[in-house]
Design a protein that fits this description.
Length: 299
């Protein structure tokens, strides 16, 4: 299965280079692989594997990873206290690398919602059960994602942005607007891969995986449900930012090793994903966006 996405910056379709492509296909498309997957989707295995990426030995993987996936290291700062020659003490420190000052900026217009992750996006103007791309709408609806009687109705049939982060991506996520936190809670679950190969086999990945949910009251876009979805081999979701109040572009947190997903749900009729994102979503194609550029606008 080849994964194509639209790169907005380059204005063209590209084919994704998948980290561990063969392993993901084996785990989700063969009988023997599916048997092992039952073990790998449990927290102790994924957290344990993630911990290995924090060891000094894991540093040896960095150079080949950078070369294979053509990562522009001139865009990133070294780990604090380390030199340009040996910028990271472990693979996890490399994985959560930060951009250099000025390499990314957040759009300031109050009418525009900036990208909260540097990732591949699907977008929906109104999430209903009838939606079928990338998975059945009932698995991306408010009730399934939020698992909260308190908040389900607030986001019923509202707009949705789904940002999928690959292992090669920048793995910090940010607040899309000024505002305050109304609620924060965790939802227990599994740790399936969020790779499209896995989604094809298990449509309920986003609503059955481990999730952390933050309800935001924003200055320009009403209430938002900001959801970080755990995934296979993700060591941990870290909330590094302020869970009380925030400014547009502030760091909210990061994922330790592994690809994962950030989902943002809105109130019905408050905002709309960019038409380009909506159009490619209807074709089953994600749109790759850099951190801080436009994802949606006020209605």
């Amino acid at each position: 299965m080849k994964i194509q996405y639209y790169n907005r910056g380059k204005g063209c379709l590209e084919q994704e280079k998948v980290y561990g492509d063969g392993a993901v296909k084996w785990m989700y498309q063969t009988l023997s692989g599916k048997l092992l997957t039952r073990l790998l989707i449990t927290a102790p295995v994924s957290v344990g594997y993630g911990a290995l990426q924090s060891s000094g030995q894991s540093r040896k993987k960095i150079a080949n990873f950078i070369k294979k996936f053509e990562i522009k290291m001139e865009d990133y700062v070294p780990e604090e206290g380390r030199s340009e020659n040996e910028p990271y003490s472990s693979f996890n420190k490399f994985f959560i690398r930060k951009f250099k000052e000025g390499k990314r900026s957040f759009l300031s217009s109050p009418e525009v919602m900036p990208a909260f992750s540097e990732a591949r996006y699907f977008g929906y103007e109104s999430m209903t059960d009838e939606q079928t791309i990338p998975v059945k709408g009932k698995f991306l609806g408010a009730e399934a994602l939020l698992n909260s009687e308190k908040w389900n109705s607030t986001f019923q049939e509202g707009p949705l942005l789904l940002a999928r982060l690959c292992p090669v991506d920048y793995h910090r996520f940010h607040y899309p607007d000024n505002g305050k936190v109304l609620d924060y809670y965790k939802v227990k679950g599994k740790l399936h891969s969020v790779n499209p190969i896995a989604l094809k086999e298990y449509a309920d990945v986003f609503s059955s995986n481990v999730r952390e949910v933050t309800i935001l009251e924003t200055e320009n876009f009403g209430k938002l449900a900001y959801i970080e979805v755990g995934a296979m081999m993700v060591g941990k979701i870290v909330q590094s930012g302020d869970l009380k109040s925030f400014k547009r572009g502030d760091e909210k947190g990061y994922f330790l090793f592994g690809g994962s997903t950030v989902i943002v749900l809105g109130e019905k009729g408050k905002w709309k994903p960019d038409q380009e994102i909506l159009d490619y979503t209807q074709k089953g194609i994600e749109t790759y966006l850099q951190l801080g550029e436009s994802t949606a606008s006020k209605c």
